[in-house]
């Protein structure tokens, strides 16, 4: 089994050009896959239109941050999770009753409880959304959950809306 990834970038720019794709492939790929980068194929230019959504030239990769978030969640690394959030972050959680979490200490308490009760296992789906947001679906002990992540200019999570997938 294999995977081919199109790319116009030279080897020195490959991670920048294919950031989220390579990150997911490197961290979530099935052992034994043969992963090849095919040079010379088209990739969207900054400010290009991608399925009706504007692709901006940003200083961070929203999809890579979402995967980092899931990696930290899967590892149970509360410090890494909290590092990904902006100081004024807000979490709207509909996973086990509706709750809104604000403030660092409340966010820490939320994650301590979440890691204990609902550990995450694998990535289910990952997609860009409008306004530089990312939707990530993942499997927990309670089933498939979806999270919509919004980011500040520095690439930190400023808002997270999570709930069971429908």
Helical amount among residues, as a percent range?
25-40%
Q: Structural class per helix/strand content?
A: alpha+beta
The parts where pLDDT drops under 50 for at least 5 residues are: 1-17, 37-50
Spatial order of the strands forming the largest sheet:
6-5-10-9-8-7
Distance between the termini: 31 Å
What is the makeup of the main sheet?
A: 6 strands, mixed
Give the overall shape, derived from the CA principal axes.
globular
Number of helices: 5
Tell me the radius of gyration.
Answer: 17 Å
Return the average pLDDT rounded to an integer.
Answer: 78
Q: Using DSSP, what is the number of strands?
A: 10
Beta fraction? 35-45%
Q: What's the order of the H and E elements?
A: EHHEEEHHEEHEEEE
Any overview of this molecule?
The protein has 166 residues and is of the alpha+beta class. The chain contains five helices and ten strands. The chain has a six-stranded mixed sheet with strand order 6-5-10-9-8-7. The chain has a two-stranded parallel ribbon with strand order 1-2. Helix 2 runs parallel beside helix 3. It starts with a strand and ends with a strand. The N terminus is likely disordered.
């Amino acid at each position: 089994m294999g995977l081919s990834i199109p790319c116009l970038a030279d080897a020195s720019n490959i991670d920048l050009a294919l950031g989220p794709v390579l990150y997911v492939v490197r961290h979530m790929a099935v052992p034994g896959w043969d992963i090849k980068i095919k040079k010379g194929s088209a990739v969207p230019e900054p400010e290009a239109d991608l399925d009706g959504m504007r692709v901006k030239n940003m200083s961070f990769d929203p999809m890579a941050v979402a995967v980092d978030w899931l990696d930290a969640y899967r590892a149970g690394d509360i410090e890494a999770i909290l590092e990904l959030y902006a100081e004024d972050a807000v979490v709207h959680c509909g996973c086990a009753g509706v709750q809104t979490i604000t403030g660092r200490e409340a966010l820490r308490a939320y994650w301590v409880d979440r890691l204990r009760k609902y550990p995450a296992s694998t990535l289910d789906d990952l997609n860009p959304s409008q306004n530089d947001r990312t939707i990530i679906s993942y499997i927990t002990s309670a089933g498939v959950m979806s999270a919509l992540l919004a980011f500040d200019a520095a690439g930190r999570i400023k808002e997270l809306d999570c709930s069971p997938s429908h």
